[in-house]
Amino acid sequence: MTTKSFLLALSRFLSRRGVCQTLYSDNAKSFKAAERELQHFSKIVKEQELQDFISSQGRALLTFEELSTVLTEIEAVINMHPLTYTTNDLGETEPLTPAHFLHFGKTEFSYPLHFADLVNKTLTKETLLRRKRYQTNLLKQLWIKWKEQYVLSLNSAHHFKFPENSRT
Question: Mind listing the GO molecular function terms for this protein (predicted)?
Fold first, then answer.
């Protein structure tokens, strides 16, 4: 497993299960092997000819792992949406969400540490940060669409009034 694969898998795990207090790994040899491969790959990637080729290709598409990670983060956002009525009263209890059932009451969602700090120094932080910002931007776009389109459509559906004589 590469470092990037690990970070994306960790992000999917945290999106589904919430923040963990302790993380153990027995896969040290794989990470050391990945480090050597990444150092070699880093030398190739830093060559100016390759950089010029990559920058001329335009907007990047997500890899399968990146797409899977973004979709899992979207899943986490949707699972945070209240199922019950919410009020402005500070004394009210927290509204019920699907995350309450999935995380046994835990509903906070955040990354425990900065992902760029997890990457070996041979990878450029700028590249990783740019990819993470791209993924985060996709997540924000979904959240905006969720609030502006889906939630508003639910509100308008609940305001539909039935004629008094049609109720049984």
Answer: nucleic acid binding; RNA-directed DNA polymerase activity
**Using an 8 Å Cβ cutoff, are 155 and 86 in contact?**
no
Query: What is the pTM assigned to this prediction?
Result: 0.38
CA 155 – CA 168 distance, rounded (Å): 24
What string of H, E and C letters represents the secondary structure of the chain? Answer: CCHHHHHHHHHHHHHHHCCCCCCCCCCHHHHHHHHHHHHHHHHHHCCHHHHHHHHCCCCCCCCHHHHHHHHHHHHHHHHCCCCCCCCCCCCCCCCCCHHHHHCCCCCCCCCCCCHHHHCCCCCCHHHHHHHHHHHHHHHHHHHHHHHHHHHHHHHHHHCCCCCHHHCC
Mean pLDDT by 10 residues, the chain (168 residues): 71 77 64 58 65 58 79 82 73 72 58 44 67 80 72 62 53
